[in-house]
């Protein structure tokens, strides 16, 4: 039996690369070879953040990191998603085709399967030219996959127009059992700064959603317990989550591959010195940016809570970085540029998570039984917030004032309220058990993953 070789292609964003990297490590553990394709820009970040760690020694060469251009110049702004998506779609298919030819020639390797991020779905067309089987991987919730998949139906039903928008606020359900959705919080409606860019992003997503049927497998980083309704609405979508980093202190997989920034491990010894269940962890994912007023309120709020806090502020060196207000004391806290988040959330001193509710952060918090204080910014985060607070009931959300700011007093009020709510804590712990059971040997996500690997090996 030959060793399956899988080409993995994430969307070029941190929250897409981390879960696909965790997925790739599992494939390697199960005897597969993986060629992980980043964009040149992100590949550089990933390689730099790894420092001296030796990938080859750790994975015996079974995990190979390669890269292709995203079509933008190195100095161009990659936070403009509309521009990034349009450029990728016009340039990356050719680059990928070239890469596949090179792999076949130089490495003398037959790619058994391509696993593409759903929002890189165009890659399946490229793969099919070479007769490569296609699999789609979705790093957000099953509900968000269902939403993308149903774009044509939403347009037919008049819920959204051909630009993905609705003139008036409407709530709707994709099926009678699924959670309510809101046209004002659609994943594409709040990621662009103007209607032209929004239209470009919507068209890109629409294009990708049309390729879903080219894939033999649809895999999703979720679990049945978390999203029973969405998963029974789309039975082809197999949950294989939560895809967590494998931290085995004695083994290769401890190296963090796929991070854009080096993890500041000093926070772990700081956490060791704190009391159990006392620290407020504050992190907003990889690209949430604060304006100065909001940043100030957050800093002063963290002083007000009068508890230890661990705060990730990762835009400190960038051009538009925010500055700490003069009044900020911060003496109870530790501030880092980038934390080993999964390790942090599993530390016994963590009491709650002030989070932007990106899906990875959501899953990581749930997998560790950590209650949430939700502060969504864009994309799927509003939906995740509602799901955490109203469906799963393991968190509270911050309210904004009339200027749209979360004030320092609101931060203190909600931290106190959350930490005195025993029911939320118990529900979080109960959910932790259910979610993580999935990745035990006989767990449902493990079974789904194994089924996929067996198919790869056939
Ligand atoms: N993350 C991390 N260290 C940090 C902050 C975030 O490792 O200091 C990781 C986090 O564990 C998660 C990912 O970055 O896996 C962020 O993904 P998410 O979907 O939560 O947010 P996004 O960055 O896509 O907005």
From TrEMBL:
<dbReference type="GO" id="GO:0080044">
    <property type="term" value="F:quercetin 7-O-glucosyltransferase activity"/>
</dbReference>
<dbReference type="InterPro" id="IPR002213">
    <property type="entry name" value="UDP_glucos_trans"/>
</dbReference>
<keyword id="KW-0808">Transferase</keyword>
<dbReference type="GO" id="GO:0080043">
    <property type="term" value="F:quercetin 3-O-glucosyltransferase activity"/>
</dbReference>
<dbReference type="Pfam" id="PF00201">
    <property type="entry name" value="UDPGT"/>
</dbReference>
<protein>
    <submittedName>
        <fullName>UDP-glycosyltransferase 83A1</fullName>
    </submittedName>
</protein>
<comment type="similarity">
    <text>Belongs to the UDP-glycosyltransferase family.</text>
</comment>
């Amino acid at each position: 039996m030959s060793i399956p070789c899988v080409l993995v292609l994430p969307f070029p964003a941190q929250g897409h690369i981390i879960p696909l990297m965790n997925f790739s490590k599992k494939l390697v553990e199960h005897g597969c070879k993986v060629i992980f394709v980043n964009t040149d820009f992100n590949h550089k970040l990933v390689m730099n953040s790894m420092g001296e760690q030796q990938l080859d020694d750790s994975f015996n060469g079974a995990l190979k990191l390669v890269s292709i251009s995203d079509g933008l110049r190195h100095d161009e702004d990659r936070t403009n998603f509309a521009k990034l998506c349009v450029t990728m779609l016009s340039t990356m298919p050719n680059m990928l085709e070239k890469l596949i030819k090179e792999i076949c020639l130089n490495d003398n390797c037959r790619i058994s399967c391509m696993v593409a991020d759903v929002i890189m779905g165009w890659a399946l067309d490229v793969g099919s030219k070479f007769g490569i089987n296609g699999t789609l991987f979705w790093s957000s919730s099953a509900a968000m996959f269902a939403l993308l998949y149903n774009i044509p139906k939403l347009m037919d039903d008049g819920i959204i127009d051909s630009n993905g928008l609705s003139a008036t606020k409407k709530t709707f359900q994709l099926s009678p059992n699924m959670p309510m959705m809101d046209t004002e919080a659609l994943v594409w409606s709040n990621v662009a700064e103007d209607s032209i860019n929004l239209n470009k992003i919507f068209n890109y997503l629409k294009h990708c959603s049309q390729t879903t049927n080219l894939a033999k497998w649809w895999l999703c980083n979720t679990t049945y317990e978390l999203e029973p309704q969405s998963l029974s609405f789309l039975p082809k979508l197999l949950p294989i989550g939560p895809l967590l980093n494998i931290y085995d202190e004695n083994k290769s997989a401890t190296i963090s591959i796929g991070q854009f920034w080096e993890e500041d491990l000093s926070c772990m010894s700081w956490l060791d010195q704190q009391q159990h269940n006392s620290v407020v962890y504050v992190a907003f994912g990889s690209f949430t940016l604060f304006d100065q007023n909001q940043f100030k309120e957050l800093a002063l709020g963290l002083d007000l809570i009068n508890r230890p806090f661990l705060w990730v502020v990762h835009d400190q060196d960038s051009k538009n970085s925010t500055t700490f207000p003069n009044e900020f004391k911060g003496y109870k806290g530790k501030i880092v540029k980038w934390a080993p988040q999964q390790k942090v959330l599993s530390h016994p001193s963590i009491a709650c998570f002030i989070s932007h509710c990106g899906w990875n952060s959501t899953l990581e918090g749930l997998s560790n039984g950590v209650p949430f204080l939700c502060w969504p910014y864009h994309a799927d985060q509003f939906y995740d917030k509602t799901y955490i607070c109203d469906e799963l009931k393991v968190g509270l959300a911050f309210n904004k004032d009339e200027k749209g700011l979360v004030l320092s007093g609101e931060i203190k009020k909600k931290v106190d309220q959350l930490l005195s709510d025993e029911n939320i804590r118990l529900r979080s712990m109960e959910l932790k058990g259910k979610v993580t059971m999935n990745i035990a040997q006989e767990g449902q996500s493990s079974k789904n993953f194994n089924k996929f690997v067996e198919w790869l090996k056939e």
